[in-house]
Structures
1.
Amino acid sequence: MKDKDIVEIVQFTDPVCTWCWGSEPLLRKLETRFGDQLKVKFIMGGLVKDIRDFYDGFNDIGGDAEHSNRQIAKHWLEASARHGMPVQSEGFNLFSNENPSSYPQSIAYKAAQMESDELADKFLRRIREATETEARQTNRLEVLIELATEVGLDVAKFIERYTDGSAEKAFMEDLQLVVRYGVRGFPTFLVKYGEKEVLMRGYQNYEAIKSVIKAVSADKVKEYSSEKSIGNVMTFIQKYGKVAPVEIQEAFAYTSVEMEALVKDLQEKKMISVIPAGNGLLLEEKKQGLFCDEETGVCKMN
């Protein structure tokens, strides 16, 4: 496939933005419906440089860190009711005087990206999960190191890039793109096809972005069908790891009733594990047993 036949979806984002977390089902659906005709890319936007100097008047977030944490937790629950992704509001304590910023998560993503775009995107997803559904303090380096280990990054190189200024420099370059495109909120989506670009501000639905893809590509980029089947759903789960039910529901156009029945069926067949996640749940492929790799000396469930 020629590059000109590929649509690039660029999400200007922040790892702790709940509406970016809520856009994960959209990205999964786009990837499922357009396959190798589409690439997703992330630009780090730097939502909170310092919570003490930040203020969101609509949600009363900013200034005092403790007050902000309470307001963020409240806002996330309200947002979750709309976007459907699970959030953990209880025990949410991300910001403090010692850790007042969301910049560390963005710098960490850029450090990971220097090793591998694929691993970096898995790492970004894991940061979002840990922040949104586990109330982890992901702006602390020790937590970021744990998450980097989980997704298979070279931890020594990750730490080096995070601490030597190279990842921070790459993040600053992302911030320059934010200014260049006049991005003022997250998520913002840039749909690119060849020389054509369309900027879409704010939380978007699938039909809106699909219409833009159709317009900029002159209908050359075609939507695939996504058949509802256990096989396709399990392939989806295997590809992405832990997923929320709404991500499967959106990708394959299940109704809420059908989705509930599917989860129950997959559980009864011991094909998935259900993981409590704040006010919702995540699904992952059922681990079948213990496997020990003689080369690495690591034993794990597989």
2.
Amino acid sequence: MQPDIEASLMNVLISLYGDREAQNIVKYLLPELKNISPEEFQNILNRLSRHEPWQYIIGKEWFYDLEFKVTPATLIPRPETEELVYQILQENDQHEMNVLDIGTGTGCIPIVLKKNRQQWNVWACDISGDALSVARENADRNGVEVHFFQENILQPAERSEQWDVIVSNPPYIPVQEKKLMSDNVLKYEPHLALFVSDEDPLIFYRKIGEYALRHLNPSVGRLYFELNEFYAEATRKMLQNQGFKQVEIISDLMGKQRMLVARK
């Protein structure tokens, strides 16, 4: 049955994703399809053919070598976000710190940070209660303590905490770019976590920047963003205008301007 499963998967996936990505998807799917019935397998093929992400079908994705539950309430963790996490870990050592992730989704960022820096005190927030439920389950699955709370960062509650690191991978895709996106993202992933208005594409960066100026530790605080590469320079200038003294854009492994670190 295994060769038939592999061939059938490739037949569906190659037309949607191309040969290389289809092979990678099959590599992840095959171990999940052991002892599956023909009826169940046909259902999976039907869902894949409708562009449904394979991660939602099996209910999981791997990020920084950890397994995360994913549902349609959460974005699927991306490799470029792994680079953001790596950057934070490279620049911050093991000493005790307070860290906040804004717009946490699956919780992949704070969970990996806590897993690799046990002395850190890690918090994470999201506007979506459903996403927070998934994030809490992922923290339990991976054996770490992260403090989750619900928050609309566009209208944040007043808080007394001071953070040493604030990180966010916020919504940053203008609505006008929807037409350029593939169906597996557009039809299935949560638009709340993806899109911003064409009139104000930097709204989350601006609001989080304002929040960070109030709540970052004034001596050592750092703000980390994942970026829309097409707005990288505009984001840097905006943060500089807000009062951040050091704002650095960092390119990812593909040479795209996808990360930013700002210091007060």
